[in-house]
Amino acid sequence: MSGWDDKPQVIGFRQQRPTVAKGSTLNAAQRTGAVVSTESKGAGQTKGPADHQRIAKLDRDDAPKPPEKVGQDVGKAVAAARMAIKNAEGKSMTQKELATSVNAKPTDITDLEAGRAVPDQQLLTKLERKLGIKLRGAKNLIGTPLHPKKK
């Protein structure tokens, strides 16, 4: 039933909300039956500006680390074993020939010998079989024959 006698509604006017009561005030208001809100105002808001130095430090610490590289000793062992293998003309095996024989790219062999390659277990396994030397495991075993001669 709307008419001229109704209270006009002003646009932009905020209605009065119940106050937040704490402790004994809350108990007294509940006893009298008054409308009281118990939620806290501003919960979840932080006081003051954000700690940018702490956030920046976390960003620096959580940066991904570059992957480990194959050691120089592995590269030297591959190069030495490759040079030891001779073809029919008496020339040593090239990096391209080795890459072709193990189904890899020549750049993979170049990076491996230079110590810039990321360890690829499949490639290292194929090279171990082709060259007949150990390329994985303890550092003192790298370059030793894959299958030592039996006594």
UniProtKB/TrEMBL annotation:
Biased composition (Polar residues): 16-40
Top-level taxon in the UniProt lineage: Eukaryota
Region (Disordered): 1-74
Any one cellular-component term (Gene Ontology): nucleus
GO molecular function, one term: DNA binding
UniProt keyword terms in alphabetical order: DNA-binding, Transcription, Transcription regulation
Keyword hit for Transcription: yes
Xref: PROSITE patterns: HTH_CROC1
InterPro entries in the cross-refs: Cro/C1-type_HTH (IPR001387), Lambda_DNA-bd_dom_sf (IPR010982), MBF1_N (IPR013729)
Gene3D superfamilies, alphabetized: lambda repressor-like DNA-binding domains
Hydrolase is among the record's keywords: no
Biased composition (Basic and acidic residues): 49-71
Family listed: Belongs to the MBF1 family.
Cited function: Transcriptional coactivator that stimulates GCN4-dependent transcriptional activity by bridging the DNA-binding region of GCN4 and TBP (SPT15), thereby recruiting TBP to GCN4-bound promoters. Involved in induction of the ribosome quality control (RQC) pathway; a pathway that degrades nascent peptide chains during problematic translation. Required to prevent stalled ribosomes from frameshifting.
Protein name according to UniProt: Multiprotein-bridging factor 1
Annotated organism of origin: Kwoniella shandongensis
